[in-house]
Structure formats: structure tokens, C-alpha cells
Amino acid sequence: MIKKLRVDHRLLHGQVAFSWTSALNADCILIANDSVVNDELRKTTMKMAKPNGVKLVIKNIADSIQAINSDKTDKYKLFIVVESIKDAQKLINGVDQIKSLNLGGTKATEQTRNISKAMNITNEEETILKDLVNKGVDVTIQMVPEDTAIPVEKVL
Predict the structure, then answer these.
(1) Which of 45, 97, 133, 145 has the least C-beta neighbours within 10 A?
(2) Arithmetic mean of pLDDT over the chain
(3) What is the pLDDT of residues 46-80, one digit of tens each?
(4) What's the pLDDT at 16?
């Protein structure tokens, strides 16, 4: 069962690992990312950041979609974390059961504009978010579980 799909450019860190996993009562964190799979240092860092008693799985986007759709993940209360809005879009398009998206944080660059405390998006990402909302996906901005979720359409 998918508890939440979250975009966070930092992927797994204290805030995600502890506050969200605890609030969701998740027992498995899936990091869906094409580059981390081949980066031993980042994988090791994430393994150290995960809470005790919570399974950590790191897969590329295609393998994540396949695993979720194959029912292999059904026995878990799954918290999925992706690095980018584009990666979230790929997962949502590939997995029918994902109906919501939590925006946690993305890096500020020269090509982005700030839409909340930690969310910075490009014009292309804004188009993706509007498309997801128009398809009925519940897209909200929420840094930590204690914060009020803000519907993304209010800030676009």
C-alpha cells in the first residue's frame, strides 16, 4: 500500500527518515532514482539515515514502477521518495494507484522560481504540476507532517 509519494531533492535525510516515516506509519522507504542506484556513497549514506525497523529499497524509476505494479510491494506500507518533479510524473504515469503527490523541497537555480519555503520550480515543472492537477492528482506542498498541506494550484 502506497502511503505517500514525495519529491525531495535530498531524498533520504532526517526529516524524511523520521518525521514522515513515523507520521505515515511506513515500514518501507522506496528511493526511486536513476542515479543513486549506481552511487555507492549515496546509498551508504541513505542506509545510515533510515530508521531502525524500516526497510530501505533503492531502485531506478523503471524498476520501481515494475515492482509496484507487480504487487511485490503490497505487503508494505510504502513511502516513496523521488528527487524531482519529472521523476514523480514518471511514477504517477506508470502506477495507476498513485493519486497524490507531496512536494517537499527542490533546489533553487537560475532557471527556477520559488513557490514556497523550499520548493523551486522551472516553467517545465510548473506545466507538469498543472497537468497532474488537471488529471486529478492531489498535489500539495508540505515540508513536515506538522505543517498544513497547501494545494499547489494556490501558488502556481
Answers:
(1) 97
(2) 95
(3) 999 899 999 999 999 999 999 999 988 999 999 99
(4) 74
Q: Residue 48: which H helix or E strand, with range? A: helix 40-49
Copy the grid coordinates of residue 150: 497547501
CA angle, corner 128, sides to 12 and 71, nearest 5? 55
Q: How far apart are the C-alpha atoms of 149 and 139, rounded to whole Å? A: 9
Give tens-digit pLDDT for 90-144: 999 999 999 999 999 999 999 999 999 999 999 999 999 999 999 999 999 999 9
Start-to-end CA distance of the chain, whole Å, equals 30
Res 17: pLDDT: 84
- The sheet carrying 55-59 orders its strands as 55-59, 28-32, 78-82, 2-8, 100-105, 138-141, 150-151
Integer Cα distance of 45 and 49 in angstroms: 6
> What is the distance between the alpha carbons of residues 16 and 112, in angstroms, rounded to a whole number?
23
Which DSSP category does 17 fall into? I
Cell numbers placing 41: 556513497
